[in-house]
Amino acid sequence: MSEELHQQEVTSNSNNGAGELPGVNLTPKAIEAVRKMIEKEGLGADQGLRISVVGGGCSGFQYSLGFDGRKDGDTLTVIEGVNVFVDDISLPYIAGTTLDYVEGLHNAGFRFDNRTCGCGSSFSA
Question: Burial of 115 by CB count in 10 Å (0-12 exposed, 13-18 middle, 19+ buried)?
């Protein structure tokens, strides 16, 4: 990934220290894609991208993306004006991961770069 990564202001509601871990990074293409989707959905300024971890995938865990508001225990990372929410349970698995948006001949979508999985959507712990 030759593009510059973006990570800015991080705040946490968590009392377990998880907020001290590094957050998720987004490439410029990912930020642009999220902004377009937020605009298309007509979401308010308090809404943003929620990234979480769920069981499944080829490696045991997979990432989940959706739009949501801030909840108790969330870490909020504001990246170029885009709110990114990660719950305190998912944060240790997501910390340091890069989210990119890729477009190809067969499909387009978000891809996680965690250096442990080739498919870009699952990982092992």
Answer: exposed
Contacts of 117 (CB under 8 A, 6+ apart): 57, 58, 59, 123, 124
Q: pLDDT per residue over 98-108, tens digit each?
A: 999 999 888 88
Length of the chain: 125
pLDDT mean across residues, the chain: 78
Pairing of strands 61-69, 75-79: unpaired
- Is the torsion defined by CA of 18, 20, 25, 31 positive or negative? positive
Q: Hey, which bits of 25-97 come out as E strands?
A: 25-26, 47-55, 61-69, 75-79, 82-86
Which run of H or E residues covers position 10? strand 10-12
Kindly report the number of other CB atoms within 10 A of residue 21's CB atom.
18
* The token pair that represents 54 in the structure block: 């769920």
The amino acid at residue 98 is T
Using an 8 Å Cβ cutoff, are 124 and 116 in contact? yes
Quote the pTM value: 0.74
